[in-house]
């Protein structure tokens, strides 16, 4: 479920909304509501949806046993509201404000988004690696370009 949630965000940003997902990918009403309304300019309108997503996250943060599976079974994912932080970062990315979410899951350090990271800066080792890769695969730059990923 989480995979479609993230993919739908990024496909939407790229203008690609043509994907046909399997029916089971639509089985989480909270995520469906967030996907439908995440661009709402009224950030306070999203608060009930985000609180519900926080509750869902805490209920899906458990160690998997036998044939019971949880979305956030690893310790790192259990405490990190990655799906909510992703939504907030994307709202920021498109110029929308974010609401304050009063939920224990969103306590520090998740009460604010981390600073944006600086872009990738290549070093001598990386330049050498790509130079060697270009010898074996001359089209690597086109295949790995952002433009090719958005086709």
Please characterize this protein's 3D structure:
- The chain is mainly alpha-helical.
- It has eight helices and no strands.
- α2 (29-37) runs antiparallel to α3.
- The longest helix has 13 residues, at 47-59.
- The protein is globular.
- The mean pLDDT is 82.
Q: What's this model, at a glance?
A:
This protein is mainly α. It has helices at residues 2-13, 29-37, 47-59, 75-79, 82-93, 124-136, 140-143, 146-149.
Strand content: under 5%
The structural class is mainly alpha
- The tally of beta strands, per DSSP, is 0
Q: Domains counted in the coordinates: how many?
A: 2
Q: Mind summarizing the main beta sheet?
A: none
Overall pLDDT confidence? 82
Proportion of residues in helical segments: 40-55%
Rg estimate, integer Å: 19 Å
Which ranges are low-confidence, i.e. pLDDT below 50, for 5 or more consecutive residues?
none
The best one-word shape is globular
**Order of SSEs, N→C?**
HHHHHHHH
Give the SSE layout.
Blueprint: H1 2-13, H2 29-37, H3 47-59, H4 75-79, H5 82-93, H6 124-136, H7 140-143, H8 146-149
Helix pairs in contact: 1-5, 2-3
Main features:
151 residues, mainly alpha, 8 helices, globular
């Amino acid at each position: 479920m989480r995979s479609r949630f993230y993919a739908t965000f990024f496909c939407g940003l790229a203008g690609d909304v043509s994907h046909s997902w399997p029916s089971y990918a639509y089985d989480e009403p909270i995520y469906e509501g967030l996907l439908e309304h995440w661009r709402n300019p009224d950030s306070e309108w999203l608060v009930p949806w985000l609180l519900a997503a926080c509750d869902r996250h805490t209920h899906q943060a458990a160690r998997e046993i036998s044939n019971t599976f949880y979305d956030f079974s690893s310790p790192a994912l259990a405490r990190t509201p990655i799906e909510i932080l992703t939504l907030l970062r994307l709202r920021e990315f498109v110029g929308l404000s974010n609401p304050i979410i009063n939920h224990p899951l969103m306590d520090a350090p998740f009460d604010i988004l981390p600073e944006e990271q600086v872009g990738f800066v290549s070093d001598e080792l990386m330049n050498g690696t790509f130079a060697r890769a270009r010898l074996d695969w001359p089209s690597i730059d086109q295949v790995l370009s952002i433009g090719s990923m958005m086709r």
